[in-house]
Model the fold of this input.
Amino acid sequence: MQVYLDYSATTPCRPEAIAALTESLAQGWGNPSSLHEWGKRAAFAVEQARWQVAQLVNAPSADAMVFTSGGTESNNLALLGVARTFSQPQHLIISSVEHPAIAQTAAILEQQGWQVTSLPVNAYGRVNPEDLRAALQPNTVLVSIIYGQSEVGTLQPIEALGTIAQSVGALFHTDAVQVAGRVPLDVEALPVDLMSLSSHKIYGPQGIGALYIKPGTAIQAMGGGGGQERGLRSGTPAVALISAFGVAADCALKEIETEPERLRGLRDRLLTQLQDLTVLKLTGDPHHRLPHHASFCLMTAQPVSGRELVKQMNAAGIGVSAGSACHSGKLQPSPILTAMGYESTLAQSGLRMTLGQATTLEDIDWVAEVLRQIVTRSMSKTVSRV
Done:
């Protein structure tokens, strides 16, 4: 029996998106910038997808969506694009639990003279809005706080954080890559100026994403070219990928009232079945949490790395992740867990299980049993070493 529980790393491309992708490659391969019929067909496909992605977040206009290569580029464009509108370095605020696409980009700006403040989080990985308020300065021009943390599943109080940032005239950006399709998004109601999205987190293809830019927000391109995507992201659009992204977004919107609730029920069943394993500590906020997300640390007498747990689960046919997928190949303390106050050894034992459309009740019961056996075996080994 094989069970994939790493949907926060990537999701399989859904049949509807695959159909749109293949149809576009076969029939809609024209250059959208061309004026002839082939170009017009491709341009129509791009704009239809732009409208579908805009609908997913209730954007007031499809023109508010700029297609990128994925969440990382969207995050880069948000930070660097805003920074380029200023002739002198200003002040940027992020959190200590950001994805590397934000944390490393902020570090680049810091090297260029920008002042960067990284807000602390509590033991659940959540930012206190009052810490943001206290960190604001007269030259604070941008605040970027991740909406749903990929490694521990914590949801941030985006409404409060965005309101505080905008109250002093700062732009507010959020990385919503993990949230889209799992939590309803409404940029008309949320106090956000910029929002990053990624196709392959919502059952679309890899290599395509989008940045929502609130109308009137000042932002500049990171490079030059033919002026596509409102001049912010030059290059011939990846029509097939964009078309498939649009279809995936449309499907995600149709399922937003039912699928997250189903996943939450399965996730809670998993947690209930494991709650008597006291050495398995839940990480992240138990209440303000992505509906499909479960993450743990293993607190045994002798350290057991998350990477080792992943290998043992994989041997049983179960795909999970050691904390963040972007760090799972490196045996080092998780910077996210470290920021949450976990000591170094414990911060190496993180395990993440994220559920998706193919996850069934039988899968959950099997995974719980296998993990129980692995943890029990690990405990026995550590006892024998003492």
